[in-house]
Fold this sequence. Notes:
GO terms for molecular function: cobalamin binding; cobalt ion binding; nucleotide binding; ribonucleoside-diphosphate reductase activity, thioredoxin disulfide as acceptor. Belongs to the ribonucleoside diphosphate reductase class-2 family. Among the domains are: 9-153 and 358-551, no CATH class; 160-353, Anaerobic Ribonucleotide-triphosphate Reductase Large Chain, CATH 3.20.70; 725-840 and 868-872, no CATH class. Helices cover 38% and strands 15% of the residues. The chain contains 27 helices and 25 strands. Strands 5, 6, 7, 8, 9, 12, 13, 14, 17 and 18 form a ten-stranded mixed β-sheet that branches.
Amino acid sequence: MTETVSGQTRRGRGGRKGLKMRRIFTKPGIHPYDEVRWERRDVVMTNWRDGSVNFEQRGVEFPESWSVNAANIVTSKYFRGAVGTPQREWSLKQLVDRVVGVYTETGRKHGYFASDEDAEIFEHELTHALVHQVFSFNSPVWFNVGTPSPQQVSACFILSVDDTMESILDWYKEEGVIFKGGSGSGVNLSRIRSSKELLSSGGTASGPVSFMRGADASAGTIKSGGATRRAAKMVVLDVDHPDVEEFIETKAREEDKIRALRDAGYDMDLGGKDIVSVQYQNANNSVRVSDEFMRAVEARSSFGLRGRLTGEVIDTVDAKDLFRKIAKAAWECADPGIQYDDTINDWHTNPESGRITASNPCSEYMSLDNSSCNLASLNLLKFLRDDNTFDVDAFVKVAELVITAMDISITFADFPTEKIGETTRAYRQLGIGYANLGALLMATGHAYDSEGGRSLAAAITSLMTGVAYRRSAEMAGVVDPYDGYARNAEAHKRVMRKHAAANDQIRTLDAIDKAIHAEATRQWQECLKVGERNGYRNAQASLLAPTGTIGLMMDCDTTGIEPDLALVKFKKLVGGGSMQIVNNTVPRALKKLGYQPEQIEAIVEYIAEHGHVVDAPGLRPEHYEVFDCAMGERAISPMGHVRMMAATQPFLSGAISKTVNVPESATIEDIEEVYLQGWKLGLKALAIYRDNCKVGQPLSVAKKKTEDKAEPAAAPVEVGPVRTRLPKRRPATVTRFSVGGAEGYMTASTYPDNGLGEVFLKLGKQGSTLAGVMDAFSMAISISLQYGVPLETWVDKFTNMRFEPAGMTDDPDIRMANSMMDYIFRRLALDHLPYETRAELGILSAEERAAQAAGHDPASLHTEDDVDPETLAQSAPVERPKQEKSAPVAEAHSSTELIESHQGRTADAPLCLTCGTKMRPAGSCYVCEGCGSTSGCS
């Protein structure tokens, strides 16, 4: 492991300076591979929906400690060479050697090491850390380094565009090159004249929103042309741009168009032939707001929109009204997000070289135009000892090692454009970060949304960045500061002092964060001292990325800064198959909180069955918060996420990739408040996503029926299903409904004893083909009900299904619907299922939700005298032999689907286009546990 001697360097052979390295994990004369138990595995990855094989490679070699999932993802994503040929990599050793070899040889060549012995120590320590999943480089490193391909190491890019047609066309081309390589980029379009300004020829300018159409079409074409994943891009517009209102409403307006086209009979499904006519769907949009604007919002005063050429105010708007439009659009479609311009540039180390105007697609990398950033993330749980103390010394030295390797990569890296290459080599922006924060907090008995949790996260982040910049200053003494340092020296040192001052403001609460904070304080003091003498090698050093695919590679329970998604997860097994497990951090946390082994076993069993800790046997209510997760029972509040971001932001060069989820019931005012608090708490960027799914309600609020006494088990008898037809005259109800502007009618007929037995659906304005499909679907439902299939089975399968038309309804009990099917089966559930069953499925009426919000038990609205359970028969009665009851087993194929089965709600996550499993959130994008594919972030 790395360590400096006598300051930071000593002279090696030939009198040249270099870094002195010292071991910590490895031993002289023993290669890291020799201390690992290796095994051969077969990797066969299938699309579970149709059984097709997506990838197959047999006999691959991995450490025994690596999970099946991690090995599958590395084999399919990162091994190079054609499958089935001798050139194909088959061992993790080959992959690590390919990458580490290039880093080590480049370090030797460019004078980073004091001696050949130091270079060997660097090589061994880097190898050990990667093989033991202590950290990982971002995906482009694994894709490209050591191969005949260009040595691209960066995942994040920022472009620029000026107010000329030549520059706009260059923007299209540069984005295309980046997308072709599977990476993403961001750009600020505020230099382009608005549609309210004149051209030199006398005509009116098109405005930036119109040029966004061409870029969006390009991104969509490259995506559909066979790239490894969808194009990822960010488009930013300043809040004082005259076209900002059009920009704000752009994506929300397109959502309305999707609904209208679907109602007219066009194919608007994902991948449908007509979806390409919808614009602006390939980018995240963000408004860049200033302190001046936010103060005007608070004061409810006017705000001037300025022309791009003269800078003069050409229009005036009410700031509060404009801010509400931003929140309203985000409420409708999650765009735009917000970037806080003055905060971003107040922490800018290179203001003399230009302002920071944009970010990468996930908003964590913020730097100069035409630049890129190479990322790496530490696995925090690897530094937690068995006695629940944090290995501060190892963390310092690993961060030191990683930042050294990351800087070396810029020396040999290739870039998609010459402009990006020049800027990146001149400023050498890096992005060290971490994953598994949520798991670390839980394992140490800290609630994510707590002062203790935030203090620990702040101390770790401060230590990481302090070490990174201290090492950067040491490297500057060996291989010189970055080229742009001289003109920005005072500004850079000012930002370093701001970081150190923020560190002084951390208020520690426990022994674990006190020790980390003490070392962070020492590192910042050393950083300022060495930086004053040497300058700095890197303009930026740290940020918090999504860690999607590499988080899976490191077997992390949580990604980036995120809390645990849930307490149970889906684990693949060697030899095929899978199982549900309770996260390993749960028993570790219970032990830390003082519970005895038998108590821990009982609580873990309860969690395995219910997916949450509410009413777990023996668990004290004051400890519930330690097990709060992103989803489900006791989900962390939106401001809990914002406060965690605010705790760590002062210790990051860049920003944080994270989407703050707000509940479906959130109002536009709620979103305004989140965006306002983000500004007040000093965040650099913030995006929200309003959940359109109903949150499952606790089963404990529903009255439990007394179970019938068990009868002697009868011998198994083969009984086929029996159909019970409805009489010719039967009671029926007709419901007229509207979902996202699309209207329809539903006729539900019941048996004389009120059991549902027939459903017919009629949608307005559909063609004959769709009408026929709906008739056939209605008959299928009806026949299945008459054969005894419980209505709750249909409800469970079809609620939360997402496709257009979707959105607002005219039903007070169901304010939002994800699709026609989602609405129809929610309405049937409300009309025909008992409260207890609906509570398990997370379907409540408006009256029941109001009772719950007021702190009352919704079950109290239903008494045994009100309704006879026998009259709520879900379908035709069927005579069956009595058998012992068993819990239903959900057919899950990922952790997200497993969580859904436990919590009675559907996660708002897309299906993986490669393998068909439901993805899970990772920062502001999604990652597939099955194959490692992401929705745009590395």
